[in-house]
Amino acid sequence: MQSLRGFLELVSRERPQDILNITETVNPEFETQAIIDTLEQSGSHPIIRFSKLTGYDMEAVANIHASRDLVAFALGTSKEELSEEWLRRTEQRFEPVLKETGPVQELVFEGEVVDLRHLPIFTHCGEDAGPYITSGVMVGKDPDKGVYNASFHRCQVKGPSKLGVSLHSRRHLWDYQRRAEQRNQPLPVAIVIGVHPAITLAAASLGGMEVDEYEIAGALLGAPLELVKCRTVDLKVPAQAEIVIEGEIIPNFREPEGPFSEFTGYLSRRSTDHVISVKAITMRKNAIYQDIPGGLSSEHALLGGIPREVSVLKSIKEQHPSVKNVCYPVSGTSRLHCYVSIEKTYEGQGKNVILSAMAADNLLKFVVVVDEDIDVFNETRVLWAVATRMQAGEDLFIVPKAAAAMLDPSTQGGLSDKLGIDATKCLKGWEAVIPTIPTEAMQKAKQILSRLI
Ligand code: MN
């Protein structure tokens, strides 16, 4: 079970309350995002299926990764155990297996008949440059070493077979393209749309240059990822995907791309302005188009944040085994703010944990450390700890002008002040008691409520 539709069936069966079916006809230009955003503002993050889209004969889905509970469910665990489960699973890698054929190539469009406008690609916000593919996992191969990379890059539809793309994180795919371009060679890419969450999460993960994200996907799935060969480029793609767009990044050619509503909650005009020439589109029969909402949506935030939590937890735990959990809250765009819980054993430990977290992730600008009795995924409790366990004169510190997230509009020339707050209780002389409700009463309450809800 490594397909998006397989995952949707599982959720429909076991957590039907987490799927919302919109059966009225809506336009993928603005109206789909308006529905997602309206729910988001009311604190609701279900998977949303759009069965009828104006002008298209294809279903779409969004918000697959919009709640921590569902992401954890996809990996067979709870949100509290998600980072640990991720680390446990990625200890065992699985090499992908090549299949002769796969459902993603049930329908093949090549050459003259390629037309991106047949896909219900969402236009998210009024200021965006146009429709954007946001869920596309872009796959490429190191032109020298052949190592595969899978990562996220927004793609603007510019014509029937032309996409604008920003490789703005300037990580692995950007480096592949840079080296291909030095030889005036195009870089073959495949944009994979509609996959199991394990594949999406692997593409969002923060491995080194030599790490093959297909192996990470296999590790998260607990089974080798099934691949098929592309039709027009020398790449392999997940066999069970819904849609694949095959093409090449044109060397030594740039054209304005953007603006786009970024995860920061602001419009971004930054772009590397690359252009993809599309060679083929392959898909399943009755393919489901997948969108990740633009702007500061829960899904856009969490897909960046969850892999960061995993790598920061791993990194700071090496120095501080007393660290319990790490949360990158959506309120901090799941990139800039971080809450850490520890089992405190000595004074000053909180501040050292803050320094370790800041050292582990350049983007962090605000780190709060709390005691282990605080659930870091419950922001109200974290801020309650700040309110009742922190004294600003001694528990707060600022590191002025360190390297930061370029997309944060408050940074100046890529520099940002970093704020740390130690909201743990002092070990000596702490007398405040948290009142509790007797266990039997709590159990009875749970029984009564479980019958009602
Ligand atoms: Mn990589």
Characterize the structure shown.
By secondary structure, this protein is an alpha+beta fold. 28% of the residues lie in helices and 25% in strands. Strands 5, 6, 7, 8, 9, 10, 11, 14 and 17 form a nine-stranded antiparallel β-sheet that branches. Strands 19-20-21-23-22 form a five-stranded mixed β-sheet, sandwiched between helices. The chain is globular and about 75 Å long. The chain starts with a helix and ends with a helix. The relative contact order is 0.12. The mean pLDDT is 96. Bound molecules: manganese (II) ion.
Spell out the key features of this protein.
453 residues, 5-stranded mixed sheet, 12 helices, binds manganese (II) ion
Bound ions, cofactors and other small molecules, one mention each: manganese (II) ion
Our measurement of the CA-to-CA distance between the termini, rounded to an integer number of angstroms, reads: 30 Å
Average pLDDT, rounded to a whole number, is 96
Overall outline: globular
Rg over CA atoms: 23 Å
Total number of beta strands:
23
Strand percent estimate:
15-25%
DSSP summary: helix tally: 12
The low-confidence parts are none
Global structural class: alpha+beta
Largest sheet: 9 strands, antiparallel
The helicity comes to 25-40%
Give the helix/strand layout.
Layout: H1 4-14, E1 19-22, H2 31-41, E2 47-50, E3 59-62, H3 68-74, H4 82-89, E4 97-98, E5 107-110, E6 132-133, E7 137-141, E8 148-152, E9 155-159, E10 162-165, H5 172-182, E11 187-193, H6 197-204, H7 213-221, E12 226-229, E13 236-238, E14 243-249, E15 260-261, E16 267-268, E17 274-283, E18 288-291, H8 298-319, E19 323-327, E20 337-342, H9 349-360, E21 366-371, H10 379-389, H11 392-395, E22 396-403, E23 415-422, H12 439-452
Helix pairs in contact: 4-8, 6-7, 6-8, 8-9
The structure holds manganese (II) ion.
Manganese (II) ion binds next to loops.
